[in-house]
Backbone:
């Protein structure tokens, strides 16, 4: 286990946290076997912590025309574009698990256009990258392309929402030097 | 009053909204005299609506080493960098009101480096723009420069938080073609 | 009235100027009610002053397939791309007046693609931005697109000319820190 | 002599031109032995022609703290940055002649930082490139650096003026596909 | 084992190759237990194959002031900047093995500035990225910074050489859609 | 003859070089009448020297669907994009000779899109620039466009190979400040 700091900012002790924040963290720990560092680092700001995970779950946990693996692809691709170590490593692991595929995360992180995914998924990622890099240029043409691939307007909102939310997450992680837990590097690499 | 659509997506009727969402909207309407379009447009997604405004208030309404006007400066500057019409026009108005200055919003929107603000505020905006454009390059040197201007580490978190949150907001507004209410264009331009 | 310097360079007194320069300035003052700062700042260099306003009038005052409001749109859009405070604020005012529309200037300044203007005007501004950002890539295809929107070759010259001339103006204004007169911020915002 | 078109636009006959325009062109022809194509191409628009050459002469012909060769260096460097064939080829020739150096133009066109010029000239070109690429970032620091190299404020205006004026020229030449006369390619390459 | 094509181009059979090319490939296979796809893909062009691996070995196998792990860091960092799937995945594996560190490759791939490496290694990677992205700006200042970190001029040549050579490799791999062997994804992740 | 250093690194004496390296250099000298500086500068590293020229000859000397002049066009265009003085000046000379055209090199160096070359050559250079600038985006569409212009897959490999190899060469030349011999500036400018 690394002794590296997980954030530039103070990491509160569990016992000092508001009850709801501590309970959410303990729940994650029970489910995952460890506490992903973002929970500890954001607990420095309980109000932002609550809003962050509420937003996260609203986008990532709900039913959607995008599978959970597809939503994780968006996270991995846009987070590498933003050079966010935490999100590429952590969500790369989640993507491997969601997709039951040990290769796809490393492929899309570097260049989704050459990854072994469907043309529909490439169109989804083209749009996610446009939202990430040049959202001002999003136009009717983008909607039309995505409709051709079978995405609904609400799916398009979801793609943009995931790209936009993790853009926020990437910027915060980069600012506070959030460190990915060692556990994530290997998760999902060996079929269970 | 314009007849233009305020969003590419359906705008729900107030009476169809969950109670908490409707109440929040009515409260804003009472306070402002009208409903800023982002409330109506995001109400299409109540879970995201709740998380969005919780996050917004956690950053923009709390006590901070940054004045409310300074936080609005960050919004205006980074939103013009992201070419987000809604946020530049709406938060330009809020900045004029918060700063009691009819000129500052238009100045910082175009080029904060030549705006009539303090060197400390320019350093704050330099950092906000780095978070907006190249957060991966944020380093100890940036912290040191901001410390010299009297910002604490938590102030730095606040600057990054505002830039990151409105980065999300800009990307969503651009994706859904959110329209600024006509009222905002004149707000704060004439001293009261 | 602001006490801020209007230029990094010395601003000559009217009585010290060559007659033709002083007369042109007094004429503008009579027409506008005040002297826009660019006249005073450029008067530091009478030969450039004369050429600058001769060029300006050759493009902006003549008959053209572009309305005067359309020419001002080009100025506002490309000047925000070049982050020129003076030109966005001053020509935003002139655009509001020419177009008799208090909203259009703020809209096109931030993102003309989402402004309430015609598709023909968006095509005009796409081309103006190409001239502004990447004129080396201008090609037959650009001419063809503009022809489809009803622009003649000479209209295309006009679009390029306005974008190119204000590119010069933006660079000079940024270099000398030209300050927009306070009067411009409100001009054209209230219907007369 | 090439049979290539010199411009996308009609090139007027000398006899159809206003007297002052025709006389200026004939004067240049007498001095140079041929008519540089920009004179013929811009004659399509006599009012712009007059303003263009008045502006050109105000910057390039006057006494200045910059030598004429130095002003041509600025033209060559910024014109290659803007990928303007006409200006790199034509002003490369003029630079060779002004500097009495057959190598310097090709060197600065590609990378002035590795050209055989003085540190003062490199500082001048650094600033010219900043005006060309990112004039909004020009600051007191740039002035200070240039002062250290012995440039006055008015020299700085001159550097910016040349970069800005040829930015206009580059954009027009690119838009109208202005062709450099064959004569320029060899001019100044062989010591006289 | 994947059935995916390893290159857009025909992959020659071992028995059809020139003897020296076949022997080099068999040697690698014996050492590694499998044939990295780049050997098979480049064998389509035996003359380029020979030069490529001669160049590779001249830079990567020789004694140098840079450790072999450090040279692999350069490869991983610049290859992600060039979005080259093959080189990030394959050289990530080699880096893990060379450095005996299962985490470092994923860290430097995304953002070496936040990786757990030494300041000297970060300076090395800053320079490698400058060679990758903007080699024309390499200057005495870069040499001075690297000297301060204890690098010799010949070490600097090595850094540039590795960045430049893999820039070639990245561009070819991207053009021919070179696929990384499945074996590389797990190599070096589990301590032996 | 200039007294300028030809490289930041020591230039070995011919008599100190390994026999094969010295012989290759003497052969070039006999053929050209002088020794291009790259031979002397790279001789500082004999193993890299051998691989470099083997790679060079494999791409530039062989039979190909691209003429030798076309291959030199690729070098000149991509080398100006990389701001490599040595390669633009030296390969500009070789291009003039190969194409028996004193104008083409200066034209393509600045803007190949406006050069007097064939549409097929412009398509070739569009692709070379994509390999130079954004090889990760190379796709089936690029292959299709080139096929329409009559290029085979192996021609496409050649275009990419030349762009990629000179990308390496540009980065090394920029790092070591390689100086072009004075002879190259005039070569091929006067018909023989």
Residues:
């Amino acid at each position: 286990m690394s002794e590296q700091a997980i954030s530039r900012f103070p990491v509160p002790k569990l016992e000092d946290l508001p009850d709801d924040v501590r309970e959410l963290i303990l729940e994650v720990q029970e489910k995952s076997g460890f506490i992903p560092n973002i929970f500890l680092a954001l607990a420095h700001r309980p109000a932002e912590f609550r809003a962050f995970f509420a937003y996260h779950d609203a986008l990532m946990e709900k039913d959607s025309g995008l599978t959970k693996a597809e939503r994780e692809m968006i996270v991995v691709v846009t987070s590498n574009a933003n050079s966010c170590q935490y999100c590429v490593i952590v969500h790369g692991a989640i993507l491997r698990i969601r997709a039951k595929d040990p290769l796809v995360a490393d492929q899309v992180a570097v260049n989704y256009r050459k990854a072994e995914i469907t043309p529909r998924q490439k169109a989804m990622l083209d749009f996610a990258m446009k939202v990430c890099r040049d959202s001002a240029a999003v136009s009717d043409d983008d909607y039309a392309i995505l409709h051709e691939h079978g995405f609904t307007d609400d799916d398009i909102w979801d793609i943009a929402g995931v790209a936009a939310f993790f853009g926020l997450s990437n910027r915060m992680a980069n600012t506070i030097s959030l460190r990915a837990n060692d556990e994530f590097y290997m998760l999902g690499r060996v079929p269970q």
